[in-house]
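HOLO CASE FILE
Compound: 4'-phosphopantetheine
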Amino acid sequence: MAEIAVYPGSFDPVTNGHLDIIKRSNNIFDKVIVAVFNNPTKRPLFDMEERVEMLERAVKDYDSVEVDCFAGLLTTYLKEKEAKVIVRGLRAVSDFESEFQMASMNKKLASDIETIFMMTSTEYAYLSSSIIKEVASFEGCVRDLIPEFIVDRLFERLKERDQLL
Ligand code: PNS
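Model generated. Tokens follow.
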């Protein structure tokens, strides 16, 4: 049976750190579903359709990577997709606590689903979508940290939202 892994996240927007994890997961699993979480409690910078579309463009060269979105519990989504593995990237020790909590809760909810952690490559270890947005909001350079085609879109969106400081 094909081993399907789900790589969930907010991806607001996707960074080169996320793409590093996707690329490496693609070398291990038969199929990787990058699943964008539709969080009803947060107002993202990019809406769901945009985040999915940006990811699709960023992973277009990987045949066995699919981009999708989900709402509700991650474990329910995995069951729908008949997937048994959640992939998460770990950047630093500071990620550990919240990741441990999420993985433990997911284990409690679905004991047959495993979370596996991949150490983010050191060149991306400090990257997150939040720090990208913060640097861009002060008009700092984010080139080489996110896909090239997203750079202008990011600045435009921050401007539209009056978030260029
Ligand atoms: O990119 P993020 O914001 O760190 O991703 C967090 C995400 C989407 C993986 C997490 O919030 C999640 O899985 N949410 C779905 C709701 C859920 O299943 N919650 C209970 C277990 S954590």
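CASE NOTES: The chain is about 40% helix and 20% strand. The chain has one domain: 4-125.
CLOSED: yes
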